[in-house]
Write a structure and sequence with these properties.
210 residues; Leucine-rich Repeat Variant; alpha+beta; 10% strand
């Protein structure tokens, strides 16, 4: 069962409605646990989660900024309780433009990076989702050691049927600055698509200069 954390302030115009909706879901047994914190009194909690605005809600591992309807909350609870639905939930967040929430969540739970690469491995990935995934991965560019753990998944993407996905994979491999990634990038210099070859070459040059 999903647990929820809601951050509010005394002056927030939408927080009361969120508090009421979540309390009702708790009473109905839809939520397993609900914690509500006024960050005016506990600013360290806002700092911990890097919260910039309220209401701010955490459902399971997913994070949301701004007011939500009860229907939206219930839909997200269903996703968090589904087996293997992390990818679907992350896709929806990126589609909704909640990039900052996904980046913030990934910084605290880097394990979702593998879910993002799995999304990219799908077919017909929308451009907005592709851009969002790239932005999240790029937020880890100063942590190449962490990205290196994803090299096997990135290498798999270099064999994807979609040239755009292969190009994205080359870009990500370059951010790892590892020898294993360099070998994969060198193979991509023989890709039939010029775009992929160019990104592979640029990534090799950037990693060499790092």
């Amino acid at each position: 069962m999903t647990d929820a954390l809601l951050l509010v302030t005394s002056t927030c115009p939408h927080c009361s409605a969120m508090m009421k909706q979540l309390s009702e879901l708790l009473k109905e047994g839809v939520l397993g646990r609900l914690e509500m914190i006024n960050i005016g009194s506990r600013p360290e909690v806002a700092a911990r989660y890097k919260v910039r605005s309220v209401p701010w809600l955490k459902l399971g591992e997913l994070e949301f900024s701004g007011a939500m309807t009860r229907q939206e909350i219930e839909q997200w609870i269903q996703l968090t309780e589904g087996q293997g639905d992390n990818e679907k939930a992350l896709t929806q967040q990126l589609k909704d433009g909640a990039l900052d929430d996904v980046v913030s969540m990934a910084q605290r739970h880097p394990g979702i990076l593998s879910d993002l690469l799995s999304i990219l491995a799908g077919t017909n990935v929308p451009l907005t989702i592709r851009i969002g995934i790239s932005a999240v991965l790029e937020s880890f560019e100063d942590r190449p050691g962490l990205l290196s753990a994803l090299i096997p998944a990135m290498l798999n993407l270099t064999a994807h049927e979609d040239p755009a996905t292969r190009a994205d994979a080359c870009h990500f491999l370059g951010m790892t600055r590892s020898e294993e990634a360099r070998k994969g990038l060198e193979d991509c210099l023989e890709d039939p698509e010029m775009m992929v070859r160019e990104i592979a070459r640029e990534s090799l040059e950037e990693s060499s200069g790092a």
